[in-house]
Design brief:
With 318 residues, the protein is α+β, with helices and mostly antiparallel strands. Helices cover 13% and strands 16% of the residues. The strands form two sheets. Strands 1-2-10-6-5-4-8 form a seven-stranded antiparallel sheet. Strands 3-9-7 form a three-stranded antiparallel sheet, with no helix packed on it. The relative contact order is 0.18. It binds zinc ion.
Length: 318
Amino acid sequence: MTGGKDHRIIDRPSSPARPRRSIRRLAGLAAATTLVLGAPVALGANNVPSQLPGAGVSAPPADSGVAPAPPVATTPAASTTPAAANTPAGVSLAFGAAGADVKSLQRKLRMKRIFVPVDGKYSVKTRAGVRILQRKWRLKATGIADAALLARLGLKVRAVASTPAAAPAVFVAQYIKVFPVSGPHVLTDSWGDFRASLRGQGHQGNDIMAARGVPVVAVADGTIKRLTRQETGLGGIWIWQVDNAGNEYYYAHLNDIAAGLDAGSKVTAGQQIGTVGNTGDARYGDPHLHFEIHPGGGSAIDPYKELLAADPQRGKSG
Ligand SMILES: [Zn+2]
């Protein structure tokens, strides 16, 4: 990394900011689970279900246009969430369901000139009607009104889980092995925040607020690529590290750098490389570590999820 990157950084967070609430954690609840709403309906002699609803049918999750973030923390299925804006991915109406949601579906089908009874019972007739609509829309004729189909019909179905939600996936950090600040701190997701001297470019890292002198440690095994002990540019006293896979990390506003380190020095994850300070353009603000991740040495990514996953204080502080 030659030239310039150190000039991009400005950091003057006004205060140990309010951590943005766990929006990203909540974004992860989309584990696809087929849910059947309501109680099974009593069927006439001819209405023998050929298969249980949902069994063996994998409905694709609705594409809301929002890339689902990997789930970070345990979030139970949306059973208690009041009136979600859209039917949660994975929620579907299927044979055997009954109730107001089925009735709404039936009305929508009739509006499409598919004349099913409006009786609130997802019987063979309703299933057949859904299949007709699916063929018409060139979808797989499953007879199950999945979240995507419901959304396309303008229907919002609230999930009432009748099956336990799938075990939540755990976010696994790809880059960070050890949290970069070894001591009390406040992690904030300040990615993209406005910084006056970046002239329109959003903040390219996260700020970790901590007292001056708290140790800063390498997040992964690797090599020091560049560093400066003289205040240089917006980052002040800073270190660029590259890990053994070629990913790069930027630690800025350091108070000082550990003795003996220089470009080319090998470091191991957790090894102290400096201390928290407020050098560079952070000189009038509170001490903090400005931290960036550059996968493969390319553009920075929002390091928040990585930091959160590695944060030993996770769940103990804001
Ligand atoms: Zn920063």
